[in-house]
Structure formats: C-alpha cells, structure tokens
Amino acid sequence: MKATLGKIAVLYLTTDPEAAGRFQQEFEQELDVLVATTPTQVLTHYAEKPTGFAAVLNAAAPASNLGISLVRMLKQELHLPQPVLWLTDAPLTGAVRALLLESGGSEIFSPSADHERMLTRLYFLARHRTQPVDAPSPYDELRMPVGKRIMDVLCAGAALVLLSPLFLVLAVLIKLESRGPVFYYSYRVGAGYRVFKFWKLRSMRSDADQMLNSVKNLNQYQTSGSSGNATLPVTSELCAICTAAGTGCQQQLVDQRGQLICEQQYRQLRKVTAAPAFLKIANDPRVTRIGRLLRNTSIDELPQLYNVLRGDMSLVGNRPLPLYEAEQLLTDAHSRRFIAPAGITGLWQVSRRGKGGDMSEEERKELDNEYARDYSMKKDIEIIFRTIPALFQKENV
Predict the structure, then answer these.
(1) Which homologous superfamily is 2-139 in?
(2) Which of 82, 138, 177, 308 is the most exposed place for a label (fewest CB within 10 A)?
(3) Where are the bilayer-spanning segments (predicted)?
C-alpha cells in the first residue's frame, strides 16, 4: 500500500523546531511533512495550499498558540476540510481528551506507541479524500461587493496613471538620500487571513527590519504591564469570579502540562502580561528625512493603489496587519475584523489617527470590528471624505 500511494502530505504543528526535525526524520519514508511553528505559518500554508495536505498533525501543547484556540478557529471560521489529529505522549485525563476532540480534533495518537495505527489512518485519509484538488479556497467566500470592487478598480487605475510623474520624482529623492530600493514590501494579513505583498514607498533605512527589536520600547500601544514574554503564573486555585459565585470553575482550559485550569484566571493573567497586538512608534529613529515627509503626508501609502488594483485590498477597509500583529488577533473577540476587506484607509484612521497614542489598542480593535459588522458603499464614501483632512497629520508615527 505504501508503494502505491507514495508519501502522504501532512501539515505538522509544533512550537519546537527540533521536535519537527525528529518527526520528519522518523517518517521520511512515509510522510511529506510541512512544518508550521507559529499561527502565521499555519495560515500562510493554508492560504497557499488549502487542499495540499491530507491532515493536520498537531503536536503542540493544547494551551499554546498552536493549540485548542487555533484549531477551533481553523475548523469553525475557516472551515478547514482536513481532519486534525492530536499527537501527544503525555497522559491525558478524560476531561482533557474530550476537550481536544470538542475543539475540532478527530483523533488522538501517541507518536511513539501508535506509529502504525497513525500511518494506517493517514493512508485511509489520503485514499478517500472527497474534496477535489482544484476545489475553491474558503477565502473565496469572502468576496468583495461588486459595487465596491468597481469603484476600487476605476479609482485606483486612474490614480496610478495620474500619479506616475510624481512616482518618478519621489524615486529620485529617495535614492539621493539613502541606498536601497525605491519601493518596499512586507507581508501583510488581509481579509480571510490571506497573506499578500503590501507595497509602500520606502521611508526607512534599508536595515529597518533588523532594528525592530531595539525600538519596540517606543511603541505607543505599549503599557507598563505588557511584557510579551512573561510566563503566566497559573495556579490550580479558583479565580475571584468563580470564588465569588461559590461554585467550581465552569470554564476550563488545558495548560502546558496537560492540566485543567480556570479560564477566567488564565485570561486575567494573560491580559496583564501580554504584549500589545499593534506596533506604532512615535518619532521612529529608523525613518529618513524624505521618509518623514512621505509619512506625514501619507504619500508613502500610494503604491498600495497597486494592491487595490490587484484585489489584495480595497480603498476603504480594515488595515492589513503585519504577520506578528495578526498572530495575536485569532480569538473570537477580535477575529471578526478579518471578515471585512483590507483597506488603504479605514474607520480607525479617520476616528483619531495616530494622535499621540490617545487611541488605545482596545479602541482600535473595536473600531475594526465595527467596520466589519456593517460596512457599506455609503460608509466607505464618508470615510474617504473624512480621510482627506486626516492626511496631513502632525504626529510622526
């Protein structure tokens, strides 16, 4: 049977790259293993090859960022067609096993003890997959309204033609001040968690990405309690809410040790220690002199008209996020923003754009969700007109 079917493609989830290497080596004769160690990599692999693997093998801890929350999102929001097989050698209680299966998992295997049984299951899945290879991606369901798309193509196409002389002048100025390309792209996450190349005029030094860690302390969304890398001191005691109610914990999660913990307590501690989801730096030292002018007038954003023409974005929508920011917005409370089209301008930009950090991270998240709930052509036109006075901002962000 192995010789007939050949290698089976699987998506392997783990937070330990060394463990992934050992797994690939152990099953190199039977499996073609595609590894993902972060939620962003999972979303990227799924966007690029939605039907390119037979199953998802999740070897990550249930409470990790690749664990239960991510699996629920893949199954319930992105409608992942492939089964998710949990891989763990740790002993599990009945409650934990039920939680893993309820989250969207199909089966639980021990890689060391269930070697042959797991392979038999994978061969069965590879042989009996019902979804055709050329089936549409679930992202296709997030289609842009026809009227909105027509307006985007007409406006973006006309603007690119009219602005072409300005691009030539700016190219010369950028080259005169610093070495490097005129245009800059980074990968961003847009509607439906789709990853695409996001274009801008270069306004920073060519080594700006390498300097990111040294300027994160200047983030205007940073709070005194945010650390990002802190370990959550979760205990087995009840949280204050459950204690006050005089009952046992009604909502439970699984921690890194495979133990049940109080969800309320976990969320409270997570909120205190979590790093901010968004990064916005006032007076960024990486910005060049011509780059500061481009940013203050938002001229550096003009190449995104090309993204609009391609269909990656719309003129109006929720701002597409860098990969490291999108990773932190996979919860039910904040993932709604990805239902709306990505845009050059949007509701939060015209509400209180960059005003010295006055807009909190939570306010920005709520505005993104608000736009996703009820965006329309009328609201888009209103936002476009409100964007014009917001272009000339005073803050260097």
Answers:
(1) Response regulator (3.40.50.2300)
(2) 177
(3) 153-174
For 126-145, give the DSSP string.
HHS--S-TTPPPGGGGSPPP
Band of the pLDDT at 29, cuts 50, 70, 90?
confident
Question: Alpha helix locations (H) across the chain?
Answer: 2-5, 17-26, 39-48, 68-76, 94-102, 115-127, 146-177, 212-215, 240-245, 263-273, 289-296, 304-310, 323-326, 347-352, 361-374, 377-390
Compute the distance between CA of residue 253 and CA of residue 263 in angstroms, rounded to an integer.
6
Inform me whether the pLDDT recorded for 1 exceeds 70.
Answer: no
The answer for residues whose C-beta is within 8 angstroms of residue 252's C-beta and 6 or more apart is: 95, 99, 260, 261, 262, 263
Domain assignments of the chain as residue spans, ordered by start: 2-139, 142-222+276-390
Query: In this predicted structure, what is the pLDDT of residue 12?
Result: 92
Q: What is the spatial distance between Cα 194 and Cα 82, in angstroms, rounded to a whole number?
A: 18
**pLDDT tens-place string over residues 322-369:** 876 776 676 666 777 888 899 999 988 888 644 444 667 788 888 888
DSSP 354: T
pLDDT one-digit tens code per residue, 78-106: 788 888 888 888 877 777 777 788 777 77
Q: SS3 for 283?
A: coil
| Dist CA 85 CA 104 (whole Å) | 9
* Of 81, 130, 126, 85, residue with least CA distance to 103: 85
